[in-house]
Amino acid sequence: METSGKKGGPVGGDTSSAGPRLSGPEQIQHHKSDTVRKWGEVGLFVGPALVLFLTFVVFPVASAARYSLYKWNGIKQFSEAEFIGFENYARALWGGNDPATKDAFLTAYTEPFWQALSHNFAIIALSMAIQLPLALIIALTLNRQFPGRSLVRVIIFAPYVLSEVIAGVMWLIIFDPNGFATAVVQKIGLSMPSGGWFEDQTWGFWTVFFIITWKYLGLAIILFLAGLAGVPQELQEAASIDGANWWQVQWRINVPLIGPTIRVWAFLSIIGSIQLFDMVWVLNRGGTTGQYATIASFMMQVGYFRKDVGFGSAIAVIMFLISLGIALAYMAFVLRRDNAAAGEKGR
Q1: Residue 74: inside a domain
Q2: What is d(CA 74, CA 84) in angstroms, rounded to the nearest whole number?
Q3: Residue 96's pLDDT is what?
Q4: Do 203 and 292 sit in the same domain of this protein?
């Protein structure tokens, strides 16, 4: 009996090895402590980023949306501003709803707004048609071993890290009527644009696009080179053994495999083109309705210099909605497909 009692102790009687049992209230208190500790850890890591996001993204957008509903010059107290509802949006899109002032707003606000917006979309189209293939060809060409490879990459990427203001001032000097570009054009026997490079309607836009391409092409090239670095070398060697030449390897293996990288760059380029401001502002010398004004520079001119904060805020909200729509479309139709394809490859 004594032996059976000893045997029965560890099996059914002695529970000290399993730790002390908690009573009902103690279990509830322990569960609450775990929950508090878990949410405390989440708040510690997510909290600072969330505060920054609310401060510098949500609050400014909400403030702009509020101001856009008022006629306010930004000088007098906001409590004295006149509430006009969505009239600022109507003025931007079709000249407003008041027949007495519609013609004046069409000339001063609506037409410059649509002109500036068309410049943004023209830059987007030209970026896809010119910058994308150019950056892709350069990246494919540089994706090989040759002397000075690292130096060439640094030189290509250097304009991107240069300040927009510094770059803009530098190109203003180059394209000055008495500057280097004018001297080169005259040297080869061509006539420079009438009134200067930036004053001519056609030459002004193309000159700005050339400078934008010089400034941001390096980012596309570096992104594509990073994508090409992840392409398995075995696939390229197998294609070469099967008789494919260098260009066939690039266009049938490398380019399709870096498709997600190309689409990421296209998304960044579109959003950047919508938000383009610094370079255009410097090259346009603060002008508002020049040949290459963008929606951001027009917003700055109207809201700050014309003291129409309500209308400028409406333009800011429109610009935000355009960017948000593009981002949501990218996430729904492009990013989801790329993630699904990556998941299938990982299985």
Answers
A1: no
A2: 15
A3: 87
A4: yes
Predicted model pTM: 0.83
261: Cα within 13 Å, side-chain hemisphere: 21
How confident is the chain (347 residues) per 10-residue block, as mean pLDDT?
47 49 62 78 88 93 96 92 94 89 88 93 96 95 87 92 93 89 85 76 87 96 94 89 88 92 95 93 71 88 92 96 94 85 67
Residue 333 lies in a domain: yes
Residue 292 confidence (pLDDT): 79
Q: State both tokens at 278.
A: 């610094």
**Alpha carbon distance 168, 162 (integer Å):** 10
Structure tokens at 19: 């730790």
Full domain range(s) for residue 40:
28-67
Contacts of 132 (CB under 8 A, 6+ apart): 220, 262, 265, 266, 269
C-alpha dihedral, 197 to 203 to 207 to 208, nearest 10°: 100
Same domain, 239 and 184: yes
Residue 10 makes CB contacts below 8 A (sequence gap 6+) with none
Three-state helix/strand/coil letters over the chain: CHHHHHHHHHHHHCCHHHCCCCCHHHHHHHHHHHHHHHHHHHHHHHHHHHHHHHHHHHHHHHHHHHHCCEECCCCCCHHHCEECCCHHHHHHHHCCCCHHHHHHHHHHHHHHHHHHHHHHHHHHHHHHHHHHHHHHHHHHHHCCCCCCHHHHHHHHHHHHHCCHHHHHHHHHHHCCCCCHHHHHHHHCCCCCCCCCCCCCHHHHHHHHHHHHHHHHHHHHHHHHHHHHHCCCHHHHHHHHHCCCCHHHHHHHHHHHHCHHHHHHHHHHHHHHHHCCCHHHHHHCCCCCCCCCCCHHHHHHHHHHHCCCHHHHHHHHHHHHHHHHHHHHHHHHHHHHHHHHHHHHHHC
How many domains, the chain?
Answer: 2
Asked, for residue 259, whether it belongs to a domain, the answer is: yes
- Same domain, yes or no: 289 and 215: yes
Q: Which of 266, 258, 271, 268 has the alpha carbon at shortest distance from 338? A: 258
